[in-house]
Each structure stands twice: as structure tokens, then as C-alpha cells.
């Protein structure tokens, strides 16, 4: 296999959130008081308990429980609900052990609940400084915890990894895993492997160098670290990755360009899997920093290892074993951090079982690799693509002529939010079907010729290109909304084809759960939790939880009763950046955990939050040149949180109706000087001059006076 693979009005692909940490006063330390047994010894199949992020080490998100089945799923009712007290993004997979559910909410807050009743047992707040809300890609989310020997492991958004006593909720140890002078963040769930806890990080959009770290579960001491892109000076780091970079990966990069200043990206922000049979860690690597490869590595002609790759390392030492690069010399934010699933498929000699790695990353291809060697076995596009015409015999994408525009722009599918984003897919080993929460979000890419010092977002593309201050007419809005789609795909990884597909009205729907009874569960942006027949895709049951769902459901059993649970909470990258795609403004709601069981008669209460008053706060001001300046500055610095064209989706404040738009001094205090940093809105004085700030205000007022109906 070749080295490179083996040994429009665009929607901005991400939304921000995070920076520095100033923790609250030290919390009491604790000794572990929970049961001292390795719960992973019982994690061969997700049954009565949900012990790991993906249900099992293989991360199939497939439960062996059969109590809730196609014949009785219509009898599901609400057993209990629990308020998470946050109106930001909720993406957590709950862990359920010994009758207790552990679930995280935004800002990395950890909740322990009685899994039978939803009664709160304790809450642990790590004290993240809310001013960190500017350095995270996609909202201030957290995807969950790991557990071992009565200890929970929590990744905190400011870069900390903490051990928490599962019984008392008190902190045992805390270690900083990142350089706080750089815009790193942690939103992913840790994984426990043997006596180590593994954690990655995020921040490639703003300029960092990615890596995966393993820490001792008892002490928090670093055991090994594997970097995913070279040392900027091509020198050893004293890390597990040194040898492979010296012999292979360094040669795939040039010695100049933005990557030597900003780190190169390649963050390991989500998928981390332990392959027990091969005693290896398999993990996904993210995008380059900046995205634009010509700015990132202008002198290089290589593939920039290990960007957008699946990498396997020895579990004990972190030493390199193999890699497969899904998107050589990534140029589009086509991360390979999406769900990695291990399974046995009849792909061996004479149809014998073969252990494989499966992934449907952002670039739109479904890959099947040999788990032991990383050998490419097959790949096929699972969503429409126009950046490539397919894969060659070695699994390398064949790029189209317009995939890497040198000037002008190209409207590409998938866009940077991907054909499949972080939302976990699931796999049914009996039916041999993978269930992909897929989507279509085209995006225009207009490359910049040099780095832009006036924006914090480090992409190397101008997403404001082709856009103007003129409000969109209803026909254009309707056409744009029709171009963005969601779907649930039951994918046959052996035949590399869809068995069935369910079309959905919006992208970015929730993660997926499969059960041995023949059901597939998924939550939707509109708030419905839906059960489908796993073999046919026929919808069998749905229940609206009164808030959008992005998180994946889990299931567990207590006292002979099977429960289904999911966390609701409107937020995340799509929610922040795609407000203009919704027919009407989304009502802000608090996130919740909702648990269901057969025969339950409960209900999901209303939140009672008041709707936003859609009233302009100032008269129009500014000439066309000022409005254009404000539009460009807004698009470069504000759009990823507050929405393109200043149309918010309802997660963060809609600036068009903010009282500060009517007061230049109050506006500047917020925008430039960070008077609301405690709420996550830091000051942008280093990037925006007073004239820029006032021009943005003029543009936002202009948008408030020309708002589309309902938005």
C-alpha cells in the first residue's frame, strides 16, 4: 500500500467555545470509596449496564437487551426526567453502573443520578472559567466520562483530566493535559484501558498541535504521549511517536508554512478505541491547521501525516503500529475523528470472520480496514460527493479538478461539517449493519493567499466570499434550506451499500443506539426520539422531548426492567452556525436527561423560558462601505457563534435583538473589552479596532431591520 494511505451561501463548519481556565477554589480531595473491581471485565457486551462510552470496548453501541422490542416499543413512556440546567449544547453519552447514571452537561459539569428515579445524588462542577467560551470549535460541550474501580475520569473543557470518586463526587486528582498558553480544549470522553486513562484534545481551527495522552489511573502521571503531526523543528519530543516521525511522517511535511507557527492541527478530539484482540489503541485524527494546505505547508508536496487518519498504537507503550490516511493532505476539515467501530466481518478466506475497523468519516466514504495491519479492504461513498470521483485500489481518494481551488471558490460536498460528524453511529452484529447519522451540508471554499491576522478562526479560507449585506429573499432561503439534509442510513459494510435510508428534514441529528431485539433509536433536531425497525427502517415509535437531541441514547436494565435514556439539549456546531436554515427561530430550552420504560405514564414538562422579543434596538446608520466592513468583520469573528448573516439559531443570544446594539459604548464594552467574559463572551480588542466594532454594530442593526419573517 502506498505511503500516502497506509505505513452558495455557505454554512461555516463549526462554532466556537473556549480558552483559558481559572478554576474556582480548590475542592476537597478524596480517596476512592467505590467497589475496587474492573468493570471492563464485564464489558464484553452492553447489557444491564452501560459501562463505556460506546457500550463496549469495540464501541458498537449495540445492546444485548431484548426487553424493549418491536412488538412492545409503542408502550414506552417517560419514567423520569432530570434538568441539566444549561441551554448550551448537550452531547453526552451517560455511563450506568451499579444503579447510578453519570452524565455530563455543558461546561464539563458532571451529574450523578439514581438510574431508577432520576434523583440527583451529587453534582461536580470543575469550575471552568466561562471566559473560555471562545476557543472551542463547536460549543462548550462534553461527551461523557469513563469509569474504573469506583473512580470516574472527566475531561474538562480547559484541558484538565480529573479523577472523581464515583460515590462521593469528590475530586481525587487533577492534571493539566495541555499548554494553557495555546487554544486547546477538551470536549471528548476519556477511555480507560488497563491501568491507563486516555484523553485527546481539540483546537485545530485556532492553531494547535494534536496528540493522544495516556495517564496512570491512580496517580494521574503521564505514561505515554503520541503526537499526530511533526515537531515544528522536526526534532524529537521524547514521546512515543518520535521513531515513526523520524522514519516516516516528517518527510510528508515541508519545513515552512503556517503549520510551523500554529502547530499543524491533527487533534484527537473524539474517537479512541481499545482493540483487545490486538492489544492496540485505534484512534481518529482531525483536520490540519489551517485547513488550507497551501497556507499550512506551501513548500511540501507530501500528504501531511497523520492528519485525517486512523492510527493504531501499542496499548502499553503508545508506539506506532499502523495508519490509514482517509484524506491525504487534508484541505477541507475532513476529520477522521468520527466513530471507529471494531467488528468481525466475513471477509477472510472462504468467508471466514475477519476483525476489522470501520469508520464513516467526514469525507463521505465508508471504510473497512483490517484491524491487525490497517490494510485497506474496501471503501464506498455513503453520501453525495463532488470533491472526489471515488477511491483507487489502495483507498486513496481521486480528487476532482475543482476540489482544491487556487483562486475563486468551489462549492463542495461534503462541506466541513461532513457527511457524518461526531454523532456516534452504531452497529448490529447479527444483521451486520452499521447505522450512520448522515447529512448533506455543501459549503463554498474560497482560499486566502496569506494568513489573516484579523480573525481568530484559523482556516485559510474566506467564508464570507460571495456573500453581501443584502438580506436574503424568501426564495433563496427556501432553496438553501432544501439543499441541507439529514438521513439515517443502514449501511452494509460487506457489500458497501445502503440497505435502507430514512430521510430527515434537517442535518445534525443525534447519535444512534442498536439493540439485539431489532431496534434502532435516534434523536432528532426537532426533539423527537424515534425507534426504527433495524432490518427495514420502518418507524415504530416516537416521543417528543421538547428540545433538540444531538446526544446518543443508551439502554440499561434494573430490577428486570429495561430503560432507554437520552440527553436533550440544543447546541453544537450546526446549531450555532446554521440559524438561518430554520423556518423560524428556535426556542431556547434547558437540556434534560429523559428516561423511558415500558408502561410508564410520565411526561416531559415545559421549560417555561420566555421567547426572545424580536424588536430592533436602534435606527439604521452607516453608509454602504461601513456596512460592508461590518459584514466582513462579523463573518470573520462572530458568525461561528451567532450565526451567518447575524441570524441566530437560539443557542446564543441573537445579536439583532440585543439591547447593546442601541448603545455604542455598551456594545464596545462587550465586543472589544469583554464585559461579559464570565458568560463566555470574551473581548476581541486584539482583532477588532473601534471602527471595526462599530461597523459590526451597524451591520447587525441593518440585519434587525431587514429580518426575514419568523427569523
Q: How is this structure best summarized?
A:
The chain contains nine helices and 37 strands.
How many strand elements? 37
Could you tell me the mean pLDDT?
A: 89
User: How many discrete domains?
Assistant: 2
* Coarse structural class: mainly beta
Q: What about the largest sheet? A: 5 strands, mixed
Rg calculated over all Cα atoms: 24 Å
- Would you state the CATH class of the largest domain? Mainly Beta
Strand content: 25-35%
CATH superfamily descriptor of the largest domain? Quinoprotein alcohol dehydrogenase-like superfamily
Tell me what the structure shows:
The chain has 711 residues and is mainly beta. The protein has 9 helices and 37 strands. It folds into 2 domains: 519 residues, 8 Propeller (Methanol Dehydrogenase, Chain A); 82 residues, Cytochrome c-like domain (Cytochrome Bc1 Complex, Chain D, domain 2), CATH 1.10.760.10. A hairpin with a 2-residue loop joins strand 7 and strand 8. Helix 6 packs across helix 9 and helix 8 crosses helix 9.
Amino acid at each position: 500500500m502506498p505511503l500516502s494511505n497506509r505505513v452558495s451561501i455557505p454554512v461555516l463548519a463549526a462554532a466556537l467555545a473556549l480558552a483559558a481556565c481559572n478554576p474556582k477554589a480548590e475542592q476537597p480531595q478524596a480517596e476512592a470509596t467505590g467497589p475496587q473491581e474492573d468493570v471492563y471485565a464485564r464489558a464484553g457486551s452492553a447489557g444491564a449496564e452501560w459501562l463505556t462510552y460506546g457500550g463496549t470496548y469495540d464501541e458498537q453501541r449495540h445492546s444485548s437487551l431484548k426487553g424493549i422490542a418491536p412488538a412492545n416499543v409503542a408502550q414506552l413512556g417517560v419514567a423520569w426526567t432530570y434538568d441539566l440546567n444549561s441551554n448550551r449544547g448537550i452531547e453526552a453519552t451517560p455511563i450506568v453502573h451499579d444503579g447510578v447514571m453519570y452524565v455530563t452537561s455543558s461546561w464539563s459539569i458532571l451529574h450523578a443520578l439514581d438510574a431508577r428515579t432520576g434523583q440527583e445524588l451529587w453534582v461536580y462542577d470543575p469550575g471552568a472559567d466561562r471566559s473560555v467560551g471562545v476557543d472551542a470549535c463547536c460549543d462548550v460541550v462534553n461527551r461523557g466520562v469513563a469509569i474504573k474501580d469506583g473512580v470516574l475520569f472527566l475531561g474538562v473543557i480547559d484541558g484538565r483530566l480529573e479523577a472523581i470518586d464515583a460515590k462521593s463526587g469528590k475530586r481525587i486528582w487533577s492534571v493539566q493535559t495541555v499548554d494553557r498558553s495555546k487554544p486547546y480544549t477538551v470536549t471528548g470522553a476519556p477511555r480507560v484501558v488497563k491501568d491507563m486513562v486516555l484523553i485527546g484534545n481539540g483546537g485545530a481551527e485556532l492553531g494547535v498541535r494534536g496528540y493522544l495522552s495516556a495517564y496512570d489511573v491512580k496517580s494521574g502521571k503521564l505514561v505515554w504521549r503520541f503526537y499526530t503531526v511533526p515537531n515544528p523543528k522536526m526534532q524529537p519530543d521524547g514521546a512515543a511517536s518520535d521513531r515513526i516521525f523520524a522514519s516516516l511522517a516528517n518527510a510528508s511535511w515541508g519545513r515552512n508554512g503556517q503549520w510551523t507557527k500554529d502547530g499543524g492541527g491533527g487533534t484527537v478530539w473524539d474517537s479512541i478505541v481499545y482493540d483487545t484482540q490486538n492489544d492496540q489503541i485505534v484512534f481518529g485524527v482531525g483536520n490540519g491547521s489551517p485547513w488550507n494546505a497551501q497556507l499550512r505547508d506551501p513548500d511540501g508536496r507530501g500528504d501531511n501525516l497523520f492528519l485525517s487518519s486512523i492510527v493504531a498504537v501499542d496499548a502499553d507503550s503508545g508506539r506506532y503500529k499502523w495508519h490509514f490516511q482517509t484524506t491525504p493532505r487534508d484541505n477541507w476539515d475532513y476529520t477522521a475523528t468520527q466513530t471507529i467501530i471494531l467488528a468481525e466481518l466475513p471477509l477472510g478466506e472462504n468467508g471466514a470472520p475477519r476483525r476489522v475497523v470501520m469508520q464513516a468519516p467526514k469525507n463521505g466514504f465508508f471504510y473497512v480496514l483490517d484491524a491487525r495491519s490497517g490494510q485497506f479492504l474496501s471503501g464506498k461513498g455513503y453520501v453525495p460527493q463532488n470533491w472526489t470521483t471515488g477511491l483507487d485500489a489502495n483507498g486513496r481518494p481521486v480528487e476532482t479538478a475543482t476540489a482544491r481551488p487556487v483562486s475563486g471558490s468551489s462549492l463542495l460536498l461534503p462541506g466541513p461539517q461532513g457527511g457524518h460528524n461526531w454523532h456516534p453511529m452504531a452497529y448490529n452484529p447479527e444483521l451486520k449493519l452499521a447505522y450512520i447519522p448522515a447529512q448533506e451540508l455543501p459549503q463554498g471554499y474560497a482560499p486566502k493567499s496569506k494568513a489573516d491576522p484579523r480573525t481568530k478562526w484559523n482556516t485559510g479560507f474566506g467564508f464570507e466570499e460571495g456573500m453581501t449585506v443584502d438580506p436574503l429573499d424568501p426564495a433563496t432561503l427556501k432553496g438553501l434550506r432544501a439543499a441541507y439534509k439529514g438521513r439515517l442510513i443502514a449501511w452494509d459494510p460487506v457489500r458497501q451499500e445502503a440497505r435502507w435510508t430514512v430521510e430527515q428534514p434537517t442535518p445534525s441529528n443525534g447519535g444512534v443506539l442498536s439493540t439485539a431485539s431489532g431496534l434502532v433509536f435516534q434523536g432528532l433536531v426537532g426533539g423527537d426520539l424515534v425507534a426504527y425497525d433495524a432490518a427495514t427502517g420502518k418507524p415504530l415509535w416516537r416521543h417528543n422531548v421538547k428540545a433538540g437531541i444531538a446526544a446518543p441514547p443508551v439502554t440499561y436494565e434494573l430490577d428486570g426492567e429495561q430503560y432507554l435514556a437520552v440527553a436533550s439539549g440544543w447546541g453544537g456546531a450546526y446549531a450555532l452556525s446554521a440559524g438561518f436554515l430554520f423556518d423560524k427561530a428556535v426556542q431556547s430550552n434547558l437540556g434534560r436527561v429523559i428516561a423511558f420504560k415500558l408502561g410508564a405514564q410520565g411526561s416531559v414538562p415545559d421549560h417555561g423560558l420566555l421567547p426572545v422579543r424580536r424588536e430592533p434596538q436602534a435606527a439604521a446608520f452607516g453608509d454602504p462601505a461601513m456596512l460592508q466592513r461590518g459584514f466582513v468583520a462579523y463573518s470573520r469573528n462572530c458568525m461561528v457563534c451567532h450565526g451567518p448573516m447575524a441570524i441566530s439559531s437560539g443557542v446564543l443570544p441573537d445579536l439583532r435583538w440585543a439591547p447593546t446594539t442601541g448603545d455604542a459604548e455598551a456594545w464596545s464594552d462587550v465586543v472589544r473589552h469583554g464585559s461579559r467574559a464570565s458568560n463566555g463572551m470574551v473581548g476581541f480588542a486584539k482583532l477588532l479596532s473601534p471602527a471595526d466594532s462599530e461597523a459590526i454594530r451597524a451591520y447587525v442593526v441593518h440585519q434587525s431591520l431587514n429580518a426575514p419573517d419568523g427569523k
